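Lab meeting, action items carried over

1. Structure of the three-component assembly. Owner: GW. Status: complete.
Input record:
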Amino acid sequence: MSKSITAKDLNVYYGDFLAVEGVNIEIAARSVTAFIGPSGCGKTTFLRSLNRMHEVLPGARVEGELLLDDDNIYAPGVDPVTVRTMVGMVFQRPNPFPTMSIRENVLAGYKLNGARLSRSRADEIVEEALRGANLWNEVKDRLDNPGSGLSGGQQQRLCIARTVAVKPDVILMDEPCSALDPISTLAIEDLIGELKQDYTIVIVTHNMQQAARVSEKTAFFNIAGTGKPGKMIEYDDTHVIFNNPSNEQTERYVSGKFG
Amino acid sequence: MTSSDEPQSSPTAVSTATRPQASSLRTSDSPGVFGDRVFSTLALLAGVTILVTLAFVALFLTANSTGAIHREEEGWIVGQFVEYAYPLVVGTLIAALIALVLATPVAVGVALYISHFAPPRLSKSIGYVIDLLAAIPSVVYGAWGMSFLGPALVPVYAWLHQYLSFIPLFSGSPSQTGRTILTAGVVLAVMVLPIITSVCREIFIQTPKLHEEAALALGATRWEMIRMAVFPFARAGIISGVMLGLGRALGETMAVTLVLSPGLLTASLISAGNSTIPAEIALGFPEAPPGSERQAQLIAIGLVLFIITLIVNMTARWIVSRHKEFSGAN
Amino acid sequence: MSQTDQKQPTPTSVEGPAGPPAQRRPDPAAALRPRSLTQNSIPWWVGLVVLAAAAVLGAALSALISFSIALWLIFTAVSYVIISYVVTRTRVNRRKATDGFWKNLVYLAFIVALLPLVSVIWSVVSVGVPGLLEPGFLASDMRGIDGSIDQQSQEEGTAVLGGIRHAMIGSLLITLTATLISVPIGLMTSIYLVEYSRGGTLARAITFFVDVMTGIPSIVAGLFGAAAMGWFLSTANSLGLPLPSRSTMGITAAVALSVLMIPVVVRTTEEMLRVVPNELREASYALGVRKWRTILKVVIPTAISGIAAGVTLAIARVIGETAPILVTAGFVVYTNWNMFQGWMTALPVYIYRQFQNPTSPNFSDPSHQRAWAAALVLILIVMGLNLIARIIAALFAPKKTGR
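Predicted assembly:
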């Protein structure tokens, strides 16, 4: 059920402003790909264009093709809502729904869409998703407590459980550990390693060690200056990017000389 | 442990039974799309309803008031209407002005008390107490002004008349019931007090702590700190609060209707006389036959009131927006 | 700001036991520097002495005119402010005195603001409670109550008859209908403004005109209701529809109240929707949930406590309105359950009529007693609604913590 992602000459705009220019990338199914780069280089913008979350913002639009396996998600007639059921997303800050319990949060993808589940089926989904997010043992006794009562790291894993519960093909993660402490970060990184057996995972991170630890491939994004569009500079196996990059900008970035 | 390890649920079973996602990109659930369209249309319609309603308010008031300035047999009678309207306009302004003069200093004082003087634990409940003033219905204020405040002010009016009657405001024979424009103004002052207070309180609380502490660190007393840091920051807010209070005082009906025994326009504040637009409408409208010239006249004067309050409220907002950049709030 | 004042030698007496009399030195900077940390404070008992002196002075001054408690309190307050200024000024310095002077004025302002509140509540309770305790006050209307009955109860002390049943039912029906009209329109408008508009021209126009609506005087809203319904009925009648010919009925009042209520609902709900974090909307979209479901099931539930509190406050505001109902629904002495036919009394209008046109013009005490009791009921309703609003806001606020 995992799918590959292919971008062909993808341009992302905010109104008239070209934020990301000419991205060509192929992301294999069942792999972890990291996007790294300095702030404002467009990596998050590009990530959000992978499940059409980008266009939630006013005036935002995309040119080019983005293939999920062989289907272009930007083809005319494609419903962005359908795309988002296939491409899930985990956000920078944990955002469980504050009005819902842990259990309801996991089932949110079903409940919010008005799906009717039998009690046993719902229990199955909750347990499976929470086990999948390595959270089951910590919360199984308090599933009816509010989700916002958990610690930050647990909340973020709850958000991952919420995402895997609807069984997407791809999971996008936008700096999922930037608001977490090191121990919670480690838990999430372990989880990413497990999730890649079933899902295609794309992760944006500011932390280069994290990219090196979790990903198989890494894309480096950079920006020439303010007002200029962000570009994907280099895309290769992670160990190549960090040890032997072919581009000078990448080399300077990963060796900490700028950014 | 990942989901694929679960023995009891094969992925295909999930996708056919409950998996909410579509099998292909192009299949989208049509009821969902339809729901989106219906919902956004409803929201848009609601917004448009408001615009239409307001257009209707203007339209109906204008259409129904033409009878006041135009008669079939005589043509335009604008002069007559102006003669009818101007004492009422002046009376309305006098009452509102009295209210503001009395309420503003007290309201600013109370707001300062809540924001800078009261013990922090108390200040919230004191805010509630002042909000209680706003919660009392206007008809109750009217009743209070008519049966308690008015009689209580009679000796004051007598005294004012005795010693200050050389001032035109206190000339004329003092009212024996206390039901004068000054009493109405005092009642209005009580009614606008919580409005001005709450606006001022909000703005005083927002004064940057940094400015206040800078002033205190220079050795300023509390009052000097308020003058140096709080007032300059809050000036626009105070003015807009006063204007909002003015808008309320101009449009207030019941308090004035009950308190005032209306009469001709007079400069004296302590004798019976004067009237305000809302009071005139409230007293006259239930008796005016539908479609009559009297009704048209009352609707026309209502339109005048609407325009006056509109100008006042717009001015208040304009002041706030003009001073926003300079207030240092950002 | 007058730092120079401090250069004047402070009288040694106020330094108290804390410091020996300072030696005069020629260095001007030393004069600026306080010589003792307590030199600028006055012993605590001075305030009491000043207050006592002010009370005596106030009594004397008020006796000069004609003694009354109110006058005495006023003069006491004024002389306290003045005396304490003078004392601080002579014993400490001018800056301290000015500070104390304004502080006293601020406290005074607060007390002055409390006076009318206490007075209003006292006047309502003192007359209202006996009226409320009259038999059948809440359960009967005013049918059959005429001047002779009131005259009898005033002259012979028999029970005051008549009640507010019809007015309470009228208020309930009119306010409920107004709420049913206003809340959907107001809520959907704020949803449009927050979720759909993206800051376009139409949204700015709506925001502007909602502001305009907020400022509509209530009597003008009443005029609009009457005029609009009159036009609608005459049009309908000329088309041959079997509708009443006069616009004076409950629904007209509800329309007029809606004009006052909608802007309040729009503003409070808009504010509440805006504080719902965008992250929650995005989380929902990312799960493949449609916008309308996101709004209905994520945004509104998150904001529901604030919305409910805002709506309750809006109800509290319009339930006390008199003028718009007076000119649209009129007043009657009996209970009318029909919103679409015939005149209808609301509680505030009842109070107004009982004061303005007592049932028996020469024996108005029973009418006034009924009016005060009705006012007490109205205030209790409004306060109750305010309390409910606060409780809703506190109880159903999104759970921040909880184990």
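2. GW to write a short summary for the group page. Key points so far: The two ends of chain A are 37 Å apart (CA to CA). The domain at 5-254 of chain A is CATH 3.40.50.300 (Rossmann fold).
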